[in-house]
Amino acid sequence: MSFSNLDTLYRQVIMDHYKNPRNKGQLQDGSLTIDMNNPTCGDRIHLTLKVDDGKITDAKFDGEGCSISMASASMMTQLIIGKNVKTALQLSQLFSNMMQGKDYGEDIADDLGDIEALQGVSKFPARIKCATLAWKAMEKGLKEEQQ
User: Fold this and answer.
1) CB–CB of 18/67 below 8 Å?
2) Domain 3-146 architecture
C-alpha cells in the first residue's frame, strides 16, 4: 500500500473513532476515576476504570477535545479492556515511544490495533499531548491503584 493510501486509511480510522467513539460514557461502579486536562489546548478527559484482581474489566471515558484526543481515548479503552494492569502499562509505554518517534517494536505492532493509526501524530509535537492525554490518565490511575 502506498504511503498516501496508508495515510488516508489512518485518517479514516481516527475520524471513525472520533465520530463513533467506543466506550464513551461513565462507569457507575468504576473503581478508579481520573480527571486530566491539557491546558495548552483545552482537551479534558474523565476516565473511569474497573479493575478486578489486577485486570481491567471495563473502561469508559468522557470529555471534550480535538479529534486526536478523543479518538486516542476511544482506541485506548478498546485496547486495555481485558488486559492485566502490567500489560496495560506496557502498552502505554509502547504508545509513548511511538508518539516520541522511538522504536516501539514493529513485531508487536499488531498488539496495538487501531492505535497504530496515530503514529503520524509524532510528526506534530504540539499534537502529541492531545494523543497521550487518555494514556497519561490511565497510567496515573493504575499507578495510584498499585500504591
Assistant:
1) yes
2) Alpha-Beta Complex (3.90)
